[in-house]
């Protein structure tokens, strides 16, 4: 059985994996979720958040036996962790996540998508250091197929997203390349175009790519199915 480390995306926190931890545990795995800097219960000031500090948070929670799951923007800090210390993890699994191209920031990757789905929903802070997502657009962007209680649960916990780490280029080398990878594409994603996810999924070999008929938040809409997909991918990934 595997040790899964769950890494959230923009404006979210460890709280978004609420349903996944018991679902993975029921399959015999261990599962942990972390807060990236300034998210959830982490006290870091938004002004102090960097891509490096997000990377280091991931690395501090990982072991050489850990499979790291990065959701959405979380694909960047987990990739940075793999680039810096490839032996600190067993594998990466991208969940409807951004996969870096060498030298590009996440913002640059988003701009390369064939469609821009989230731009109108983003509101930048007055100091220019962070952004939030308009509450009236959260349902359609993230949770349109999720249980009704998901939106109020999420809105009570969503937080500003620091911009600086998402504008920081990530350079990747053979370190990143040698870490085993899998990708899960959400086929009804309203945040990242699903055809763009399909393109990014080619970071993984064909047998380690999976689809889930879900919104951008399968951890809320289909936690049991998602846990089964993770379980299947774990069995196909190289053993420790």
Automatic annotation (TrEMBL):
Q: Which InterPro entries match?
A: AB_hydrolase_1, AB_hydrolase_fold, Sec-Metab_Biosynth_Hydrolase
Is the keyword Transferase assigned to this protein?
Answer: yes
* Keywords, in A-Z order: Transferase
Q: What is this protein called?
A: Acetoin dehydrogenase E2 subunit dihydrolipoyllysine-residue acetyltransferase
Tree of life domain: Bacteria
Q: What would you give as a GO molecular function for this chain, any one? A: transferase activity
Q: Which residues form the AB hydrolase-1 domain?
A: 4-226
Coiled coil (residue ranges): none
């Amino acid at each position: 059985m595997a040790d899964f480390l769950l890494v959230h995306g923009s404006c979210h926190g460890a709280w978004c994996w609420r349903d996944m931890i018991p679902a993975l545990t029921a399959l015999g795995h261990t599962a942990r979720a972390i807060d990236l800097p300034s998210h959830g219960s982490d006290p870091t000031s938004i002004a102090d958040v960097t891509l490096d500090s997000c990377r280091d948070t991931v690395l501090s929670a990982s072991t050489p036996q850990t499979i790291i799951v990065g959701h959405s923007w979380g694909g960047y800090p987990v990739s940075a962790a793999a680039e810096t210390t490839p032996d600190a993890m067993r594998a990466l699994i991208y969940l409807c996540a951004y996969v870096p191209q060498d030298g590009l920031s996440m913002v640059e990757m988003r701009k390369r998508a064939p469609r821009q789905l989230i731009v109108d929903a983003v509101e930048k802070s007055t100091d220019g250091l962070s952004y939030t997502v308009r509450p009236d657009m959260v349902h359609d962007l993230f949770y349109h197929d999720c249980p009704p209680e998901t939106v109020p649960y999420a809105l009570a916990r969503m937080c500003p997203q620091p911009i600086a780490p998402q504008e920081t280029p990530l350079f990747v080398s053979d370190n990143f390349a040698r870490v085993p990878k899998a990708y899960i594409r959400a086929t009804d994603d309203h945040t990242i175009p699903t055809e763009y996810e399909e393109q990014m999924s080619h970071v993984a070999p064909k047998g380690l790519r999976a689809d889930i008929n879900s919104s951008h938040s399968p951890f809320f809409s289909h936690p049991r199915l998602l846990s089964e997909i993770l379980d299947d991918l774990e069995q196909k990934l190289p053993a420790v």
